[in-house]
Amino acid sequence: MTITLRADCHKDYLDAFLRRYWFAPPVALWRAIEARVLSALEFPLPLLDFGCGDGLFTQVVFGQADGLYGCDIAPRELPAARDSGVYRHGVQFADGHHLPYRDSTFGTVYSNSVIEHIPDPQHVLPELARVLRPGGLLVMTVPSDQFRRLLDGVARAADKQAAERYARSVDALLAHHHYHTADEWRVLLASVGIRLTYVSYYVAPEAVRRWDRMNQQFGIGRRSLFNLLASPRLRRLGYQKVMARVVHRYLLPRLRPYYDAPARDCGGGMLVVGEKLANAAS
To answer: Which of 49, 53, 62, 56 is nearest to 108 (CA)?
Structure first.
């Protein structure tokens, strides 16, 4: 019998992430929508969180569930991931080109907003497929092929050249290297013995534009008064607990319509799910 893990599909993820990411409200909105999308899935265990970061996202989504492993290429993130208590089977430093796990170890390899930061995913996907057991699932959330054109700065640009300059600035800020279509993901996954079984958009167009405006408003990736006041270096002054409550109370009702907006056939994010074929080589 296959043991599976499922997140709470009734949880208010917007409330949860605004509490955790009060210092980065645009991140809170995007992560909340991702979490709600993922909560509709079942994840066969054991599960590898590829690119786990500090573990905060997975902690909000899955809590203290058993059967989770984590790995990341950023050494500074690993202590927080280990301390989170989420990954009871350990957290390891790992380059996606050479994962420290045996063939066919996992029922699920799950990667939230990671693959777009890898310049050569075609050289990483073979490793993700190798550590999956036959019938196991590869679950990825990535920016969609619609992401750039849905940006508020692109929609408001004076001409195509200005729109492209703005889109490139966002690519550079977020370290995004590619935006694949569903058909392109189908081909990439097929090359490593994984059959694309489900793909859907998330983050509705109006939510992408609101997210982009908030990046400007709150100075994400840039210097701003908000960033200064929210800096961890000032935590000892004690005022940030009040600031966090104010941000949460103010933004929760204002972001609710964007959290609830359906993406349907167009959205800034893409959920990609594939199944490893039984005859695929490990």
So the answer is: 49
pLDDT(12) > 80: yes
pLDDT band at 223, cuts 50/70/90?
confident
Asked if pLDDT for residue 281 goes beyond 70, the answer is: no
CA 133-134-139 angle, to 5 degrees, is 70
User: DSSP class of residue 201?
Assistant: E
Q: How many domains does the chain have?
A: 1
Burial (Cβ within 10 Å: 0-12, 13-18, ≥19) of residue 267: buried
Angle ∠(204,224,177) on CA atoms, nearest 5? 50
CA distance 177 to 56: 24
pTM of the model: 0.94
Phi, psi of 68, deg, nearest 5: -105, 135
CA distance 269 to 203: 6
Using alpha carbons, select from 7, 37, 9, 19 the residue that is nearest to residue 264.
37
Q: Which domain holds residue 60?
A: 4-276
Provide the CATH number for the domain around residue 128: 3.40.50.150
Q: Sort strands 68-72 and 91-93 into parallel, antiparallel or unpaired.
A: parallel
Q: Is residue 281 part of a domain?
A: no
CA pair distance 81, 55, nearest whole angstrom = 5
Q: 140, 136, 120: which is closest to 280 by C-alpha?
A: 136
Q: Which of 259, 165, 158, 279 is nearest to 214 (CA)?
A: 259
Q: Once rounded to an integer, what is the mean pLDDT over residues 181-204?
A: 97
Residue 80 inside a domain? The answer is yes
Q: Does residue 282 sit within a domain?
A: no
